[in-house]
Amino acid sequence: MKNSFMRFVLVGLIWLVIVGGLWFYVQNRDARLGKLESTQVVDLRVDRSFSLQITSTFSSEPDPFALSTGDNSGERNLLIKLNGSMLELPPGDLSRGQTVTLTDIQGVLQGNNELFVKASPPVSESMLNHGIRLQLFEGLTGIVDQTVWGDGGALVSGSVSFSYQDQEGDQHDH
Amino acid sequence: MFERFVRLLGILALCSIPLTVVAENNPKTIVASTTQIADFARQIAGDRMIVHSILAPGADPHTYQPTPDDVQLVLGADLCLENGMHLEGKSWMTTLAKDAGKPIVTTTNGVQPLSIEEEGEMVADPHAWFSPRNVTVYVSNITRGLSEIDPDGKWEYEARAKLFLQQLRVLDGWVREQVALIPTERRILVTTHDAFNYFCTEYKFNANNNFLSIAPVGWSTGAEVGGGMTPQRRRLVVDSIRKSGAPAIFVETSVNPKQIREIAKETGVAIGGELYSDSMGPEGSAGETYIGMMRENVLLMVNALR
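Structure tokens for the assembled complex are given below, as produced in the milestone run.
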């Protein structure tokens, strides 16, 4: 009786070692993969600064339809991301027709890049089309010049993709 | 000996698989009092949770009497959702949740209520969902509630909520555009019961009644203060239809249409159609979702009033 109980415990222990070992291996493998990916991103970063000009056809205002769960209540009316990283914006909202310039922008990558913009136009102007023009410059050279549009009362929200090659005369936007 | 060991090991490994599957495929259950709140919850929960509504499409929340089946439903819930502000007559949803020992979220918490004077008393109008902006509060409260009982799904719930809120924003813009087709002097909304105050305030109907709804039955179809129909209220409605020259008046899907039909006959005004009010439409109908319900209501109004 005692013998069979010991056998059962032994089987349980071996099972734990096998399953635990497998779990430990999978966890470590995922962590290693994650590290590799971030190293690759750093390698692609262009070591220069850029400037971004933002011009909107509307004055942005707080979005009355924003989710408010407590931890996201500080979300700005205007949000711009470059390759997933938030760009720091000057305080205040966008004003209709006025250009805001962000300087010393880091984070442009060799190859494919993406600018994401989201802003809330006035709900009372839902019958108008609204747009935000994004112009990215390296010095005086234009890299991107695109406008993201929103209509029917929707947020102005969209992505601008562009390709950058760190060689003189090999820069273009799509 | 070795054979027995391998067999046992196999059994143990097999036992661990269904346990994991059961844990992952055992979604939590949400029970909402009304069809609107159930729809909001479904938009946020997706397939991660099961959402039930106590009220069936077309049922009246003010006068509803919970059944033994409702008690069973709530007993199996992980979270209950109610509108609050006395929409559920005699707070039947709170009672059900309390008796079953289940947590409950009042989804209108944070809504700026419209106060209406009824029989000398100020009453908070519970029909807050008729302003899509207020639905933002419902959605935020539900998202918070779901995230609390399932923290692993928080990111998913917030992502779905944000999409739904953008749809509401577009809906709001669309309603404004459609309502603008009705000349301001014809923007008169007469319905069976006082459910459309938030709608009238938001989209500027009934300027002559301080942008509040005009109805023979008060804010509740039940016996609460300001609820039901009184002869004075009926006379007021008939007078305002005659004075304003309302081109049409509307019945509601969840309220007996008898009174409004009598008033239509008395005043010689056409019935503009049947609006979804305290309840959405049945499955398969255009009004089975909140956005569908609002869209169909607005199209009926524009069609009858412009």
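The two ends of chain A are 77 Å apart (CA to CA). Residues 50-173 of chain A form one domain. Further analysis is deferred to the final report.
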